[in-house]
Amino acid sequence: MAMRYTLKTFGITRDILGGKEVAFEMEGVKVSELKSELMLRFPEMKTLNSLFIAVNNTYAEDDLVISESDEIALIPPVSGG
Amino acid sequence: MIKITEKAIDVQKVIETASNLGAGAVNAFIGTVRNKAKDKNVVWLEYEAYEAMAVGEIRKIIDEAAHKWDLMGWAVSHRIGTLKPGEVAVVVAVSTAHRKASFEACQYIIDNVKAKTPIWKKEVFDDGEEWVDARPVANANN
What we know:
- The structure holds 2 protein chains of 2 kinds.
- Chain A is α+β, with helices and mostly antiparallel strands.
- Helices cover 21% and strands 27% of the residues of chain A.
- Chain A has 2 helices and 5 strands, in the order E-H-E-H-E-E-E.
- Chain A is globular and about 40 Å long.
- Chain B starts with a strand and ends in an 11-residue tail after the last strand.
């Protein structure tokens, strides 16, 4: 069954996905699957120096299982300071 | 105090917040916007933050620093929004009993804030714009 996630985007990922919050449907339930699916659907994501996923305001490991109610954010290379 | 703000940072206030009467050293790092990047003229920078997460990440960094050094006070303030060259983007201030720990702790905090905190900046030049460090340099303009 396809899951429907809501992705918050920041920095260059907002330009690539084209929205501040983007609905994203896929079969997978792991952070690693979300990353692969993003690279597949938005090949430009592969050109970034790095891509992390934050789940509920914390950096997530690849094997973390996500749910539709989680706050999921795309974290491209940070450049504060 | 951890603050992410669209308003100009009051540097003196950040330093006062970090100060402590028992401390013999207050160390402050002030990060400012440069007018050049990769030999191009920077007109302005756009900063954005994932605010809820950024505050939590900075708190973790402070906790790590407090484990390594005996911090008597600290404060971090990061600006977001549109900044022009010369404006203050970030201030980190710490106070400790003696100066050595204050230098080390201040550097540890700013280095980790830059490396881990979900804050991004876009450089806007005369002839284009670019999210800083998003891509390898050779592909930066693709």
